[in-house]
Write a structure and sequence with these properties.
Two copies of one chain form a homodimer. Chain A is an all-alpha fold. The N terminus of chain A is likely disordered. In chain A, 68% of the residues lie in helices and 0% in strands. Chains A and B meet through α6, α9, α10 and α11 of A and α6, α9, α10 and α11 of B. The structure holds a DNA duplex.
DNA sequence: CCAGATGCAAGAGCACTGCTCTCGTTTGTG
DNA sequence: CACAAACGAGAGCAGTGCTCTTGCATCTGG
């Protein structure tokens, strides 16, 4: 490893880097992404603000680092929930993963807003966020895959006008799954985050009270819409 | 009206106010909410930045004014689409309104991000945004109401654990609709914006290509999930 | 009809931001 | 051991939101 080969230098660099990310994450949790200030981070760390630019070339680069970490943390939460639900039926596993995603979002609202709210830096999401961002999606695909293997998946009806697009998506994303499953799966994926975003961003204020129950029910219906049974 | 009673003074004030909002909206469309700068707006209008504070006490107040306008514009687009679809069945009317919402969002991405992305100012949405924000929702409620009147609404099944919450929501939001309709309606409302947000914020990049078809299909399924028929 | 109150625009200024450049110092390596 | 690379600190630039004061235009009560 170059980290050990180059010795103490690289080690110190890695430590400072994570220290910066940690205090930045702290400020993010308190004030939100808009208020995150490089100078404030440097101040809290007792270093000059200019020194920080040795580690992150710009504020947006710090933010994208935090974005990747957030995607990874959320993906890990989803995977953990899935692992904890082995043995259960596919619908229940699906619902459990959905609830884990929601729980993580409620526990880390600003980090969630960072990745599923309006894109803050420039406009285009950097390419290196892609693998981390796809982790949650892969969990859902995995559930559908297992259900298919265990014959617990009833292929939903798919209108003719969507057949080509569904085949394209399936080829790109999960070639072993029937297109008629991939299409509603992707839609369900987006709709799931719609529910969470509405709750988190206050659109359910004075509308929905028992949000956990509403969410569980919606997640259940999404699972069945994908074709999961039992 | 006090605007005519107080004469030219109030008239000039209203003109300057809308001029500020208009150029601010222009900057918003180009650079996004994060980059919106009071000084830049003042510069473009040829006035001192301090003069702007006579019209909006703070940057966040300007933003909330733009938020209300955006909610109203979106609501108007939804209502117009609904009016243009009179005579069609409830499902088709629902889909048309959904597509109108999506079209507006695609045409005004930054304004959409302002109202349905991460909340930018502080955290709590000011109370005066509520009436404007509920306009789109009212359109959907109106469709369900009309469908109920015309006997084109099949009450969906509702699990027992959701019965109380659904009754509460119905009483608050649409007392004349059956709770078993209101609950999935609210969920569909959030899921609809999940689809739009994912498309607009780039989460469908390299995943969904024919987004219009995907959206139309999802909207159709949401309509049927609410109980609309025909 | 005209004095005084009120609304308004402009400028200076404060504290803050992201970011760049330069200048010593430290540290790892040929 | 010398040299190059990495590093930290400071000054400085352009920009921001926002406040305060000053002077001018406008509306209004006597």
């Amino acid at each position: 490893m170059s980290s050990t080969a180059h010795g103490a230098r690289a080690r110190a660099r890695a430590e400072v880097t994570t220290a910066i990310k940690d205090t930045a994450r702290g400020q993010l949790a308190q004030e939100g992404a808009a208020k995150l200030s490089l100078r404030a981070v440097a101040r809290e760390l007792g270093m000059a603000s200019s020194a920080l630019y040795r580690y992150f070339p710009s504020r947006d680069d710090l933010l994208t680092a935090l974005i990747i970490d957030a995607y990874d943390a959320l993906g890990e939460a989803a995977e953990a929930a899935h692992d904890a639900a082995t043995g259960a039926g596919p619908v229940l596993r699906w619902v459990r993963v959905c609830e884990a995603v929601r729980d993580w979002a409620l526990a880390h609202p600003h980090e969630y807003a960072l990745i599923y709210g309006s894109p803050v830096p420039g406009y285009a999401a950097p390419q290196d966020t892609v693998p981390a961002a796809s982790r949650v999606g892969r969990v859902f695909i995995g559930i559908a895959r297992a259900a298919l293997r265990e014959a617990e998946l009833a292929e939903p009806a798919l209108p003719a006008e969507l057949r080509d697009e569904a085949a394209r998506m399936a080829a790109d994303v999960a070639p072993d799954l029937p297109p008629a499953v991939v299409a509603p799966l992707v839609a369900a994926w987006a709709q799931l985050f719609g529910l969470i975003s509405f709750e988190l961003f206050g659109h359910f204020h004075r509308v929905v009270e028992d949000r956990a129950a509403m969410f569980r029910h919606a997640a259940d219906r999404l699972a069945r819409g994908v074709g999961l049974t039992v």
